[in-house]
Amino acid sequence: MGRLVFLFASSFLLMVAATTVSAAIVEHSFNVMDSTLIHFPLESQAGSRLCNRHVITAANGRLPGPSIRAREGDTLIIHVFNKSPYNLTIHWHGIHQMLSAWADGPDMITQCPIRPGNKYTYKFKIIKQEGTFWWHSHTSTLRATLYGAIIIRPRAGSSYPFPKPYREVPILLGEWWNGNVVDMANQALAHGTGPNISDAYTINGWPEMYKLKVKQGKTYLLRITNAAVDNNLFYKIANHKMIVVAIDARYTNPYVTDVLVVASGQTIDVLLTADQPIGSYYMAARAYASAAGLEFDSTTTRGLIVYEGAPSWTSRTPLMPVLPAFNDTPTAHKFSTSLTALVGGPHWEPVPLKVDHKMFVTIGMALDVCPSNTTCQGPPVGAKLSASMNNVSFVPPSSLSLLQAFFFNVRGVYTTDFPVKPPVQFDYTNPSINGDRPLLFAPKGTRITKLKFNSTVEMVMQNTAIIGAENHPMHLHGFDFHVLAQGFGNFKPATDTLKYNLFNPQIRHTIGVPVGGWAVIRFVANNPGVWFMHCHFDGHLPIGLATAFVVENGPTPETTLPPPPVDLPQC
Prior knowledge:
Blueprint: H1 2-22, E1 25-36, E2 55-59, E3 68-71, E4 75-82, E5 90-93, E6 119-125, E7 131-137, E8 147-153, E9 167-176, H2 181-191, E10 200-203, E11 208-214, E12 219-226, E13 232-237, E14 242-247, E15 250-257, E16 260-262, E17 267-273, E18 280-288, E19 300-307, H3 329-337, E20 357-369, E21 383-389, E22 393-394, H4 402-407, H5 437-440, E23 444-445, E24 449-451, E25 455-463, E26 472-476, E27 481-488, H6 493-496, E28 507-508, E29 510-513, E30 517-525, E31 529-535, E32 546-551
Parallel strand pairs: 1-4, 3-8, 9-12, 11-19, 20-25, 22-23, 24-32
Antiparallel strand pairs: 1-2, 4-6, 5-7, 7-8, 9-10, 12-17, 13-16, 13-18, 14-15, 14-17, 18-19, 20-21, 25-30, 26-29, 26-31, 27-28, 27-30, 31-32
């Protein structure tokens, strides 16, 4: 008996030791400053990207910025030194920040910005999450060049729920402007217009000629992120199928496809087997532009997949994939609705069946009154372009972050009266509503929603045709959500609730709400703090397509938000 007790005790100690060893501290320093690009996309070009030398705001002089690699259970410590001329914050996109809301990063939501010449250390633990994430600036449009990959692998001793790939490759799809992105964004805001159209899309920082070398017969895990500022994207590889195995760092049932649709802010993991004849094949991405009549960047970015032993691609034209039409909504919708969660897989969570807080939220564009002595050029001329959720155009506070106001119980910074339904019911997706001018103007406010700890929220997000319908990528901080259903037209409770997938719906943190349609999400508010929800198009965020949730503390110290770090930036 004593021997059995000894063996059990020894085994337990070994388990504890293994758990302790598998959790590490991963530390990085980001020196954020203006940097001049010094490398070239094509040998024949005499300048840098798109033939122009260009000064960008970047971390450690790199585009994309440094990749962060860790394991589930690790603690990340990121020192950010702001040597740029701009205020900035960094957001760790998709990381739940369980009990570490102070590290989430959205400007004036969880922190005041890091002023030029100052620094801030983000510290947080990766809890019950693994997969492809990314980091980016959450101030103005700096994330056009200030972003990078976060790769969280399973704990030591754990494995993927699919065969181990030969190699893992981050693929970051971005967007490029031949100009100062901050100046352009400020000009658009001042004139009340939409964002400037980008000059190119990029793959790992390159408009063209990113090159991935592969071995025939080997399988690669491509970790794909849409880091574009204002566009959803189609992505294909010539003559190759891909198997989707995860979305937004949540495992899926394997889904075979030759085309991906990646909304701004989303990540997709795919297995790519190099099963074609030895040669060179283009990977390519371009816009999924769902808004009718709206100008957009119609360029295509290309990279190369080069098989080992292939002749030089300069001597033989690589195969180019046939991408969908820019407005191919049926292809986008088919892909987005065909994905399902891997039931029983790592970190899978069943759909909560009891709903405590129901919301019906309209999302879309709006108008704002042009200030006196100002020339506004928004549609229509004489008004400013705006955006809203339930006819509330969100305005962030200016003197204190929402999280500070919540934690220290400071009144007058926000109100908790965000409406659970639109103040006026109308035919949401009918373009004729644009003739009802009073309906187009949304009042400004910092109106948010207060939630009890561990309550379950169900939200119907209804796209509208005000100013024009568009596929809006809506991102929720602090949580993932189950996507119960998606569809077109106006949501009809009597029939559309019957379409809910309560068994294996996809789990995400960012959902592209169908153009002229709706999506239903459900999540459990089990993370105390203030959590931002917003459109991930940077052109829509500063004009009000956002809201926030205040989640109260739980009943125990383990469910209570700790005080802020001593070096938290002050306004």
